[in-house]
Design brief:
With about 425 residues, the chain is α+β, with helices and mostly antiparallel strands. Helix content is about 30%, strand content about 30%. The chain has 13 helices and 22 strands. It has an 8-stranded mixed beta sheet with strand order 6-5-14-15-16-13-20-17. The protein has a 6-stranded mixed beta sheet with strand order 8-2-1-12-22-21. It has a 3-stranded antiparallel beta sheet with strand order 3-7-4. A hairpin with a 4-residue loop joins strand 10 and strand 11.
Length: about 425
């Protein structure tokens, strides 16, 4: 069986490699970075993604090394009062937990699993796939190496998991609009602090114009009682002229932006102290891409952020990349490692996930903060007088259904890939 080429060694690319190995499809991952390092701060893995990781042999014991189970999700108004809260993961009735993890450490966990299972030669670092040519028996890719050399490789299929700046997507959709920035500017960091609220709570506070989100991404240190608290501070600016900064992601001193949140202090939370307790922060605009009509061009398929980069308002970007990889594996079990499998994947996911991009652009589950702001300016004594409980519950249920982690549906769903399943060609080899 001719190998599958995976462009990009991020979360989506690595879970794709592990999945293809599980079902007997040879593959190679080309990653532009010269070395794998634990970059980034906190991300959430929703129960649907944790289920898939478990089916790959990456269970709760492994995830506990890079994060902790989330127990609560809450939205809070500008006066520090709750708008909405609910349990998460197993506490909410899911068969699987939701995890808050350090993105870089989780990424390294996946990388180490790929090397251990597929061998070191399956990861080609310092190699960027810059384009492709379809052939009679597959696809040939062009590779730029870190030392400036150029080479080619040939495979049966190409999976473009090369992120929001995807070269594969740019070739597939040369007339696509530029990256979309809605005006929100985010600063991300981590601070060693005592866990807030229940100790494993995800909290969003503020309005669509200005808010903070924070949650722990480590268990408390037994000696100090402190956890690594991941936080995101966000303000919305005038974006009429588009993004004018150099680059999309840069490290900045906390003093550049902390003043936006002066006075955000309540008896249970001191936002300025949380932000200023960090060693530094990373600034980036909240960006996504407009949906496209298809993620497929013959033997080439887009996956993860290359297919559907979305605002992080739903905390499910990484989770969707994991689901993508597993759905692709399921399509290959059904149709072989073939263009038919890519077509089935595209038919199933492109339309619904494109709608999720637009839903997240409209604030996703944080839309409740916007409603409160519209109705009462963000401050209230009794939230039920502003948004009745039934309206709040219906709003959240709608998002969960769109994002693929409605409790009853997920709990009742059979495994995406049946245990022991192999692609037909692999089973016959």
């Amino acid at each position: 069986m001719t190998k599958v080429i995976i462009a990009g060694g991020g979360i989506g690319g690595l879970v794709t490699a592990l999945t293809l190995h599980q079902i007997g499809v040879p593959c190679v991952v080309y990653e532009a970075s010269r070395e794998m390092r634990p970059l980034g701060v906190g991300i959430n893995l929703q129960p649907n993604a944790v289920r898939e990781l478990g089916d790959l042999g990456i269970g709760e014991a492994e995830l506990d090394r890079v994060g902790l189970p989330a127990q609560e999700w809450a939205l809070v108004g500008l006066n520090g009062n709750d708008i909405y809260s609910e349990p998460r993961g197993k506490g909410a009735g899911y068969r699987w937990p939701q995890y808050a993890v350090h993105r870089g450490q989780f990424h390294m966990l996946l990388h180490d699993a790929v090397v251990a299972r597929l061998g070191a030669d399956a990861m080609r670092l310092g190699c960027r796939v810059t384009g492709y040519s379809k052939t009679a028996d597959g696809v040939t890719v062009r590779i730029e190496h870190a030392d400036g050399a150029i080479s080619e490789d040939h495979g049966a299929l190409l999976i473009g998991a090369d992120g929001i700046h995807s070269a594969i997507r740019a070739q597939m959709h040369p007339d696509q609009p530029p990256i979309h920035w809605g005006g929100a500017l985010m600063w991300r960091g981590t601070t060693q602090a005592k866990p807030i609220r229940g100790g494993a709570s995800f909290v969003g506070l503020g309005t669509h114009r200005q808010r903070v989100v924070f949650y722990p991404i480590s268990h408390p240190d037994p000696a100090t009682g402190l956890s690594t608290i991941n936080w995101i501070a966000e303000v919305t600016l005038d974006n009429a002229e588009g993004w004018k900064q150099q680059g999309w992601f840069r490290q900045v001193p906390v003093s550049d932006f902390a003043h936006h949140f002066d006075g955000w202090v309540w008896d249970w939370l001191d936002v300025p102290a949380l932000i200023r307790g960090a060693d530094g922060a990373f600034e980036n605009p909240m960006i996504d891409r407009d949906p496209v009509s298809t993620w497929r061009d013959g033997p080439v398929l887009l996956l993860g952020d290359a297919a559907h980069a979305m605002y992080p308002t739903g905390s499910n970007g990484a989770s969707q990349a994991i689901i993508d990889a597993r759905e692709l594996g399921a399509a290959m079990v059904a149709h072989g490692a073939s263009e038919a499998a890519l077509a089935a994947f595209d038919q199933k996911l492109c339309g619904p996930i494109s709608q999720l991009i637009l839903r997240n652009r409209g604030a996703g589950p944080f839309g409740l903060l916007n409603l409160v702001d519209e109705r009462c300016g963000g401050t209230f004594d009794n939230i039920d007088d502003v948004i009745p409980p039934a309206e709040r519950a219906a709003f959240m249920a709608g998002y969960k259904a769109a994002a693929g982690f409605a409790i009853e549906t997920l709990n009742a769903a059979p495994p995406t890939i049946a245990p022991g399943a192999r692609v037909k060609e692999a089973a016959e080899a």
